[in-house]
Amino acid sequence: MKLHPHRHMVLVAVCAVMLIGWVCAARGEGGEPPYFAVKNARIVLVSGPVIENGTVVIAKGLIQSVGTDVAIPPEAWVIDGRGLTVYPGLIDAGTNLGLTQDDDAKKRGAGPAASGPEDRPATTPWRVAADELKTDDKRIESWRNAGFTTALTVPDGGIFPGQATVIDLAGERPGDYVVRHRATVPLSFKPVGGFFGFPDSLMGTIAYVRQVLDDTAWYTQAEPIYQANPTKTERLPYDRTEYVLSRALQNNEIVLLPANNSIQIVRALRLADEWKIRAVLYGGQQGYDVAAALAASKIPVLVNLKWPERAKDGDPEAEQTLRELRFRARAPGTPAALAKVGVKFAFYSDGLATPKDIFKSLKRATDAGLAPDAALRALTLDAADILGLSDRLGSIAPGKIANLVLTDGDIFNEKTKVKHVFVDGRWFVIHEETSPEKTGEKKPGDDDGARSRQSQHVEGVGR
User: Fold this and answer.
1) Considering only CA atoms, which of 206, 111, 119, 118 is closest in space to residue 162?
2) 94-386 is classed in which CATH architecture?
3) pTM of the model
4) CATH no. for 5-89+401-458
5) Please, which residues have CB within 8 angstroms of residue 393's CB and are 6 or more apart in sequence?
6) Which helix (H) or strand (E) holds 225?
7) Could you give the 3-state DSSP secondary structure of residue 66?
8) Which of 3, 234, 245, 440 is the most buried (most CB within 10 A)?
9) What are phi and psi of 377, to 5 degrees?
10) Cα–Cα dist 17/300, whole Å
11) How far is it, in rounded angstroms, from Cα 177 to Cα 430?
12) Where along the chain do its domains lie?
């Protein structure tokens, strides 16, 4: 029987409506993610021994269970993990993913030059990366396809450029990405005042930061006194910087201090003690020279994976000092030196352009003596711990966010391919794979499979 064209169109529309209804039902009321299970896989917990033939069950964005004898819900979609290894999602502990980095944005962050220490030059701590997140940044997908599921994205420009945000690298809207919107207060000691402005030197910049923190400490003490006695105490003038920083420090927010060479590291340790802040150093590339001091301080370090190198546009005939040559040669050995004395550290990509560059830099660290297990911890559990999020990120354990990476080999082997990534329980197929089987029911349609092969988020594969 041949259908009339109009009837054929109606039939297609009805089928489409039914399919949409099935997808919505699959995702559950409220848009919760579906159930998944990865079975027969090698599972690297990071927080415990490797499970050679285990199962991970994901439910509503969280890891429900993991082990060798795990019940798989009948409504779960099952991925056969034979030949695959499951890792926690990797964490980039310092990047600008999702943030605009044009010259105008930097100028906005820097602000006008100041004429004296009473002004607030290059100080915008009220800016929060979460509020400026651009989810169309193509690097987000690139990082995710390489196994990164989480990043600390840091605003740029100025001495107090704003507050950094921890994000997961998937979501429908910017708010879906945010794990902790006010995660750290980054500082820069780079002078920004220019020839006639303030501060125009390193000494002036540090003096300015010290003054801001002293003002903030005064405000923190004075505000509750005024609020308790508003009719007997002089009204406090409003200072946006003091107000925001006071709340950040009262919330024990991390303060990121720049410190790359040994002199800067020793200075940062002294300032952290003076200012009584919850400090984390970033840079850290000459940590090999002061590893003992770092261990004694118990202050964590975010190590910059953009190793020092000769300027590509510099004079090729210019003399290089022995100090420069030594620094470039020894910097990749810093992670091994820190691990040896028990300093907790994580890695960040800084200005590296691609995940491939990240793994190349990481290989230089392992070639310089860093154990692969320590490298993995620095990209997962130790990074989460430094950021105060180890209760929900960094390892494979029940109750943690379902950020997982499935590979066909050792994650640090250059020939290894990432096959699947889960971010907040959202499933991404990175390379062409057959669709997982649903226990007791039919497989998804060809359209779902096509979207999977294009590295798109696969929806509608649950109940």
Assistant:
1) 111
2) Alpha-Beta Barrel (3.20)
3) 0.85
4) 2.30.40.10
5) 88, 89, 91, 150, 179, 384, 387, 400, 401, 403
6) helix 202-228
7) strand
8) 245
9) -60, -40
10) 54
11) 19
12) 5-89+401-458, 94-386
Cβ atoms of residues 42 and 80 within 8 Å = no
Q: Which amino acid is at 374?
A: A
111-134: b (≥16 Cβ within 10 Å) or e:
bebbeeeeebbbbbbebbbbebbe
448-457 contacts: CB < 8 A, separation 24 or more? Answer: 453/429, 455/141, 455/145, 455/428, 455/429, 455/430, 456/428, 457/170, 457/426, 457/427, 457/428
Q: Tokens 């509608």 map to which residue?
A: 460
Q: How far apart are CA 404 and CA 394, in angstroms?
A: 10
pLDDT tens, residue order, the chain (463 aa): 444 544 444 444 444 434 333 333 344 444 444 799 999 999 999 999 999 999 999 999 999 999 999 999 999 999 999 999 999 999 999 999 999 865 554 554 444 454 444 578 899 999 999 999 999 999 999 999 999 999 999 999 999 999 999 999 999 999 999 999 999 999 999 988 665 567 889 999 999 999 999 999 999 999 999 999 998 888 989 999 999 999 999 999 999 999 999 999 999 999 999 999 999 999 999 999 999 999 999 999 999 999 998 877 766 777 788 888 999 999 999 999 999 999 999 999 988 999 999 999 999 999 999 999 999 999 999 999 999 999 999 999 999 999 999 999 999 999 999 999 999 999 999 865 455 555 443 333 333 333 333 333 343 343 3
**Any residues with CB less than 8 A from the CB of 32 and at least 6 apart, and which?**
60, 61
Helices then strands (H, E): number in the chain? Answer: 14, 18
Helix intervals (H) in 237-285: 240-250, 262-275
DSSP SS3 for 419: strand
Cis peptide bond prior to 199, omega within 30° of 0: yes
Locus of tokens 């299970």:
37
- Name the token pair of 411: 């994650």
